[in-house]
Amino acid sequence: MGTRTFEEMYKGVPPWEIDGPQSEIVHLAEQGEIRSAVLDVGCGTGENTLYLAELGFEVVGIDIVPTAVEKALNRGKERSLAATFLVWDALKLQELGRRFNTVIDSGFFHVLPDKKRPLFVKSLASVLDLGGTYLMMCFSEHEPGSWGPRRVTQAEIRESFRQGWHINTIREAKFDTNLGSRKCNAWLSSITLIDTGIVKGP
Length: 202
Prior knowledge:
This protein has 6 helices and 7 strands. The protein has helices spanning 3-10, 23-30, 47-54, 66-78, 117-125, 154-160, and strands at residues 38-41, 59-63, 84-87, 100-106, 128-139, 165-176, 183-193. A hairpin with a 6-residue loop joins strand 6 and strand 7 (183-193).
């Protein structure tokens, strides 16, 4: 799905808009898995970002969809929370000019086409501190049907982060939705950057 499609979806209420943070993000924060400064890639309307800001984290949320970022900014102002939101291309993170200890991703990686995955991994490495962690949740192949984003296998995750990274864990998780009690099958991965040299690679 392109930016225009997401723009149209954010004019309404897409299925992932749940009026609060994803429960898996809450769990990660409670377990001490998230460290400042934090980058939220594909932040949407900012609920995960704002939750972390409320906890005292220094956090930046980015999304390529202006309508989503505008809603996130408004929510931050309404709640008087010190979160930064930017309209930004996740394939050009190096242009942010700063680094982070943690990058969270709740539903971005699975929208990338195959050819853009290596570009994103390199972009990610350009802003993550050495020893920093990428916490990524994506649709898994165990989600039935064909609606929504493409499914991602464990093997695809491992292949994408084969060089310069250490995969700490990949575990089963659930995406919260606004579709009644429905939750969607996901993989939640914890991946640590161990070699910043991959940024300079081919």
